[in-house]
Amino acid sequence: MVDSSVILEICRLLDCSVDGVRCLGGYNNNVYEVKADKPMVVKMFDRASISQEQLMSEIEWLLYLSQHDMPVVKPAQVHGSYVNYISNGLCFIVFEKAEGNHIQVKDPVMWSPQLFRKWGHTMGMLHALAIGYKPKYPRSRWDEHEIYDRDLTMLAPSLQERWKEYQVHIHRLVPSDQEFGLIHGDLHQYNLLLGADQQLTVLDFGDSEYHWFAYDAAVAVYHAAQTAQAGEKRREFTERFTDSFMDGYAEGKGDTSGMHLIDFFLDFRHLYSYVYHNLFSDFDKLTDQQKLYLDNMRTSLLHDSSFLGSGCKLMQ
């Protein structure tokens, strides 16, 4: 949790009360809701870990999408600035609080083929807009992420080797403009809000990067698949999910170029998630359930031929 003095400083800048401030989460518990004239969301950053140009690249991307009627969270200026510097080596961005409900995967009315199709349609719209996007502050390419420069000797040798093989394979792929561009990077179900009008609003663009559009789709498939029990039930659910998702995607983008790579990127995402959590999680703060989740991921990666099992192909 962030120090109370930091919260007080932010509230002074926003001219709002500290009453009602609550932590919404974030990977480092750095996202808070505050209540001024209208509810706002504040996302804090360590200035030593991110530059103003990086922050502006996210803001510029969001403003572009919003201007083209893409339902996304909207950044707001504070005293004429989007990036606001405070003490303790921190800065913050303010977003208008989006309307809607978080996705409930145990609600069969909400967690349905209709939602999966809307989800795909939303991603397809995003990718279609990315094709013509020419920013002043460009985002990084996938291979510029620090994860690819880190020491991975804590991993089993076979996983280290597979990690290298994935990178080589991705670099050898030759995309067209319809297959590669700026993606969301983490468009799982918890980064969506479902409004009363049944429209989805997209949250948290912090992982946006230039990557294969198929990777973005694979991220959605991967996280949706994890809501089903591993084994045959997961395979069956994931096939149904992908059918609905891709129907919506084709409507939103207009084509499905490069989507044959979803199966490859699904397996890559499985290893990527394991590597990411091992590098960036504070293991002293993990719950027993979170530690068990990582242990199960490791077992799966070491013993299963693919995330969904041998012979399972989503994109025929």
What this model shows, in words?
The protein has helices at 4-14, 52-67, 113-131, 157-172, 213-225, 232-253, 262-280, 288-303, and strands spanning 22-25, 31-35, 39-46, 75-76, 84-85, 90-96, 101-102, 180-183, 192-194, 200-202, 209-212. It is of the alpha+beta class and 316 residues long. The mean pLDDT is 94. The radius of gyration is 20 Å and the shape is globular.
Q: Shape from CA axes?
A: globular
Order of helices and strands: HEEEHEEEEHHEEEEHHHH
Total beta strands: 11
Strand content: 5-15%
Task: Please give a quick description of this structure.
The protein has helices at residues 4-14, 52-67, 113-131, 157-172, 213-225, 232-253, 262-280, 288-303; strands spanning 22-25, 31-35, 39-46, 75-76, 84-85, 90-96, 101-102, 180-183, 192-194, 200-202, 209-212.
